[in-house]
Amino acid sequence: MKFPLSLTFLRYFFSAGQAKSISKAAKENFVSQSAISQAITKLEALLGKQLITHEKNRFQLTSDGVLLLEKCKQLFTQFAEIEDAFHEAEGVFKGKLSFACTHSFALSLLPRHLGRLSHMWPDIEPVLRFGHTGTVVELVKKGDVDFGIVLDNEDFSSFDCREIYKGEYRLYQAKKTPKQAIQRFILSEERKEVSLLRRHLHAAGIDMSSEMEVSSWEVIASLAEQGLGIGFLPDYIVGKRALAVYDCLLPPIPYRLLAIFSKNRALPRNARLFIDLMCEP
């Protein structure tokens, strides 16, 4: 028996395909997992194609499923643009806003921006994805989110970019750092800013023989706060932590936080609004 093509079925399939999870799709659409599974089964019957592998405890699209996911992405992008056009004519901001960012940004700066957004435009529904910079970039490339927020320490020339924040990398220590920890440096993986720090400390004759490498700004800040060493991190991470600048006459090492988005797709209206809001002082 064939079933009529349903936008609801396509929406459920699209949610599951993007999240790679039936349970997450169910939560996103406020329905049961059974409703998501049945929608996918009915789509398979209608199209005469297997869309997922149907392996227990594993969600994986077939090649036909990948094709349909891409078509659904185009379809729902068009619907979003139609909604944007009519909402703009009415002066209304509502609907989804999807973006990705790192955990450090989410914990440090994002709450303030989301608070302002919620106060000004309560009908906008943010959909957030988190990950390291590589994950954020891939989500933007695939069109799974409207835009991403990243630290400007890579080449993002393939994207359109807006600067939303700028500051400096600094060395921080606990207000009462034990003597044995004064010369222990807590650094992220080797990148441009870390190389600049090394050159400066070497020129200043400061010993860096004791180091700890940590791949999370938030963890670096927490370890420094506990007196386990001198942490090197961007200043936006510090917030209300009990940290003081470690004074070694470090020259300015600037950074920027960027909103990145595709050059090939129109940026949705809600995304433009939120980026503009984050750019405000």
From TrEMBL:
Molecular function GO labels: DNA-binding transcription factor activity; transcription cis-regulatory region binding
Keywords noted in UniProt: DNA-binding, Transcription, Transcription regulation
InterPro entries in alphabetical order: LysR_HTH_N, LysR_subst-bd, WH-like_DNA-bd_sf, WH_DNA-bd_sf
Domain HTH lysR-type: 7-62
Homology family: Belongs to the LysR transcriptional regulatory family.
Record protein name field: Putative transcriptional regulator
